[in-house]
Amino acid sequence: MRVFALILIVWLCQACATELSVGKVSSPNNQLHALVQLTKSGELSYSVNNKTKPLILPSHLGFTLQKQAPLEQFEMLSANVKSYKKQWQVPWGERKNIRNEYNELFVSLKDLRSERKMNLRLRAYDDGVAFRFEFPQQKALNEFVIMDEKTDFNLAENATSWWIEADYDSYEKLYKQTQVAEIKQVQTPFTVRNQDGTLLSIHEAALTDYASMTLKHKTGSQLTAELVPWQDGSKVKAKVPFRTPWRTVQIANDAKSLVASDLLLNLNEPSKLTDTSWIKPMKYIGIWWGIHLGVHTWKEGERHGATTERAMQYIDFAKQHNVQGVLFEGWNKGWEQWGTREAYLVPSDDFDLEKVANYAKQQGVAIIGHNETGGNIAAYESHVEDIFSIYSKLGINTVKTGYVAEQGFSNGEHHQGQFGVNHYRKIVELAAKYKIMLNAHEPIKDTGIRRTWPNMMTREGARGGEYNAWSEGNSADYTMTLPFTRLLAGPMDYTPGIFDVDFSRFDGQRYDWQGQEQKAGYRVHTTLARQLANMVVLYSPLQMAADMIENYQGHPAFKFIEALDVDYDDTKIIDAEVAEHITVARRANQRWFIGSATNKDAREVSFKLDFLTANTQYQATIYQDAKDTDWQDNPEAYQVVTQMVDHETTLHLTLAAAGGAAIIIEPLND
Hints:
Blueprint: H1 2-18, E1 19-26, E2 32-39, E3 44-50, E4 53-61, E5 63-65, E6 74-89, E7 97-111, E8 117-125, E9 128-135, E10 143-149, E11 152-155, E12 160-163, E13 176-179, E14 185-186, E15 190-193, E16 199-205, E17 213-219, E18 222-227, E19 236-239, E20 242-243, E21 246-252, H2 255-259, H3 263-266, E22 282-286, H4 288-293, H5 308-320, E23 325-327, H6 342-345, H7 353-363, E24 366-372, H8 377-394, E25 398-402, H9 418-433, E26 437-440, E27 456-459, H10 467-470, H11 476-481, H12 486-489, H13 528-537, E28 542-544, H14 558-563, E29 570-577, E30 581-588, E31 591-598, E32 603-608, E33 618-625, E34 638-645, E35 650-655, E36 660-667
Helix pairs in contact: 5-7, 8-9
């Protein structure tokens, strides 16, 4: 307490001595307070308090421009505060109704050394704060190039943090847990926990025609924005009127409130699509896991995965088991040379695209198309309209895109730079024209744009489940970190649902991508029950049951996946702790689906079902770890328990290390 009091006194004294208050805005519940200030010399800063406790100390704001004086010293022209409160509906998601309520401070500024003008718009929500910069139409500023965005986040504590290193092209790394002072440069969302348990997650919203923001360590617990550069070293090329993405700080008193935040969605523009009836969340299967295991290959040959015969088998399985879609990767020629016309438009000799599409249509099963660009953006953009047109005629309205190019695109630009941001958006908008839903791998990070373009369904943007097939894999701790970091940004196509978790059922030969024999020792690092839980916990509106269908055939646990819905009316975060455990309940119509998962530690979980409708009897079917389940030695042991429950029932679960439970709760018939 003495340390906190000293920090607060010093901060207030410094503010009184050197700062001129521009404006203050508070959250609707009056818990969060954001202050914008100017020094006597015109330096702009902001700060954030939770009640009276500092969360972000005065933090500098400004821009360095190319061949122009920097925008770092201002005078205030005007400032005003307004309030907004409205509820809106999403066409799909974790919940149908979202409350958008905030208080906004709008500050009009002028550069002290010129007539250039800039606005700062800052909003305070109950679940965080956000601000963006706007460059209005003006004579003093037209076209300009941003060389550096000097947005600081001067955290009040050297807090515990969870992060992955920034590299401008990939998010596929394992999370680290350190103090803030130990980081160098990290991707967002960047989540920290203060000593009193308060959680902050720094990210951005509505990333449009701008470079992605990473965070660079300055000193102590102070961070600064570091934008992903163009090849020429510049960051953003702009023309007025222009505005930046929102810089966001989600704030919560506990982990379950952090996960429940709708801040990013609320900061995006409403949908640009008047008709969203064609956008339908779904479960899907595919030959993808067999390819990653080395059983099949993408390219043509004796082990080619996407054959007409295998496609028919997967379509039949989907039809029989309430799975709405099937993904066929490697159906096309040109895998040796990405970017050619064959790589996008010409089926392989053993795959009859028209026959497969017609059969799928007859069975009421959706085909998910696959476009791997290999990072050759020019080639993909030259073919993509033809691709989408052909897909549309065949009744294929979902596409998985891929951008495997670890060192950037073939033109030298980065995935996460302004060039990449604009390319990904171009594809989303073109897909909407042809009524196509997208699942992007190696994507630009999610910033809530699914509100504006609801056909942008899901994306990878983190280290997914395929790493378990051919590397040291993803630990249970890693997948317990995702809900509090990557998934705060939006849905993720992690690809859960592996039943043969230790690969013990496979008795054939496996190969790596180069055709060499695959070495042994790889596996999934959870129990089977945890794989079911992941289907609920790791949300995606296009949710893949990722295992080969041979491992699902006749398996009693697959009944949970058969029953699972992936488009929800409501979601409750029952309990959670960062990187340790989470229990999530999601409602589709009158049925609830619950996923409970833990990290490497076994744990007892208890929670009351008070979210159920009162005076109604339900049946709960619980798929959970068995008494002898061990993720290393006996991972596929599980048990199914059925019991009657109501809104006063308390469920007690025993989760094995790296384990979980998946539950279906449905009302009994009258």
